[in-house]
Design a protein that fits this description.
Layout lengths: L3 E4 L10 E4 L8 E2 L14 E7 L8 H11 E12 L37 E10 L1 H4 L3 H7 L1 H8 L5 E10 L3
Length: 172
């Protein structure tokens, strides 16, 4: 039984994983609309879940995060990569959600939005990525060190490309 799940496979080949996509022409293992919960998987079924450029297409983040929490094993990891709100890629018409550095904090234990209810995750890592033109001046290192100041003062001068997070579900 495969223990890796790739959501939004978009036709990519992942022989080591169960793939899910809304579009049957991408030939996923499971055709499913991720806006509809529950997802067709058992509790704690996966030790690794990959959401590469799929979460920004959803109508609402909270139900998806609750489902990821449910289907991920307690020691499993969830990798999410989305366009940063300043990225040219964030403006695609099919993108419904926008994300900044702190965009997942309402789902993270000890995050900026601790008031938020629902299942929580442990933040394993978080990173802003930048175009190589900005990396050559090491701006990515500076801006990842001071993300709040970056997003308040410099984000539109030096647009980021992606927000990448690794999470682990906190289960009781």
């Amino acid at each position: 039984m495969k223990t890796k799940l790739v959501l939004g496979s978009a036709g990519g080949q992942h022989p080591d994983a169960v793939t899910v996509d809304i579009d049957p022409t991408h030939r996923p293992d499971v055709v499913h609309n991720l806006n509809r919960v529950p997802y067709p998987f058992a509790d704690n079924q996966f030790t690794e879940i990959v959401c590469h450029h799929v979460v920004e297409h959803l109508n609402d983040l909270a139900p998806a995060m609750a489902e990821l929490h449910r289907i991920c094993a307690p020691t499993g990891t969830i990798y999410i990569e989305v366009p940063h709100y300043t990225s040219w890629a964030a403006n695609a018409p099919e993108h419904k959600l926008r994300f900044g550095y702190f965009g997942f904090d309402s789902h993270v234990q000890g995050g900026e939005a601790e008031w938020s209810t629902g299942p929580k995750f442990r933040l394993l890592s978080r990173e802003l990525t930048f175009h190589r033109a900005h990396r050559q001046f090491l701006l990515h290192k500076l801006f990842n060190h001071i993300p709040r100041a970056y997003e308040r003062f410099w984000a539109y001068l030096f647009p980021a490309e992606h927000v990448k997070v690794r999470l682990q579900p906190i289960k009781r």
